[in-house]
Amino acid sequence: MIDTSASRRAVLSRICGPHAQSSPERTAEEYASITRAYDRVGSLSADELVDTFEERLIEYDAHVRRVTRSKLPEEVAAAIARRGAKRIAVPAGLPSDWIASSILVGIPVADADSLSNVELDGLDGLISGCTVAIALTGTIVLQNASAQGPRRLSLIPDYHLCVVFTEEIVETVPDAFDRLAATATLPTTFISGPSATADIEMTRIKGVHGPRFLEVLIVC
Predict the structure, then answer these.
(1) 171/157 Cα distance (integer angstroms)
(2) pLDDT tens across 48-66, in order?
(3) Measured over all CA atoms, what is the biggest interatomic distance in the chain, rounded to whole angstroms?
(4) How far apart are CA 186 and CA 183, in angstroms?
(5) What average pLDDT does this structure show over 157-183?
(6) Do both 119 and 77 map to the same domain?
(7) Is residue 102 located within the same domain as residue 190?
(8) Judging by DSSP bridges, how do beta strands 159-165 and 196-198 pair with one another?
(9) Per-residue confidence at 158, pLDDT binned at 50, 70, 90?
(10) Rounded to an integer, what distance in angstroms lies between the CA atom of residue 220 and that of residue 208?
(11) Whole domain around residue 159: which residue ranges?
């Protein structure tokens, strides 16, 4: 009979042994010695950056539209109308001109930061901004900040309309973390397309831990 306890102790000793003796200084030295040969700064032009970001979002099954700054209120309203949403959540600090279009008149807009999870679940969607977006991974980064709100806003509503300005798009993940350094203590969520997962039989299910529908307006 195999002595599983002895095997377990042997495995754990190999895992924990070296680290149990490590000092904070040694740990810092070991971390600093890690080879970092990956790209830290991108080389894409401004147009290529936006093209890549849009391409990745579409691959992830997000809906993407490019809009001009002057047309943003109309495009936000048109997106809400296409969705057929009747009750919309907005985080505190969302610019009022984003939802100033006459098309949105009559659609209740709720300041969502203070709503309960149950109240959020009763709304039809969310409009938000973002802190930064990553072109190569098609990722939108949200923080508990103005026009973005607490993390639950990006998890509960079934539809998320996110406004991304071109100056918020960077090329690589290290670029993004450089941007996030000043606000690193804020709760942060990384979103790459609509929420989706697959079980052991590879049946894809959307909306498990976030919105089933993600729409992005890239403001050029």
Answers:
(1) 28
(2) 999 999 999 999 889 999 9
(3) 77
(4) 6
(5) 94
(6) yes
(7) yes
(8) unpaired
(9) confident
(10) 32
(11) 43-219
Average pLDDT, the chain: 85
* Residues facing 162 on adjacent strands: 128, 216
Q: Does 14 lie in the same domain as 70?
A: no
pLDDT for the residue 100: 77
Do 53 and 99 lie in one domain? The reply is: yes
**Residue 170 one-letter amino acid:** V
The pTM of the full predicted model, rounded to 2 decimals, is 0.78
What is the rounded distance in angstroms from the CA atom of residue 204 to the CA atom of residue 146? 33
Task: Give the Cα-Cα-Cα angle 43, 66, 74 (nearest 5 degrees).
Answer: 150
Number of domains forming the structure of the chain = 2
- Looking at the fold, whether 90 and 108 belong to one and the same domain comes out as yes
Residue 198 has a pLDDT of: 67
- Which residues are 65's β-sheet partners? 217
Nearest CA among 123, 83, 125, 119 for reference residue 103: 83
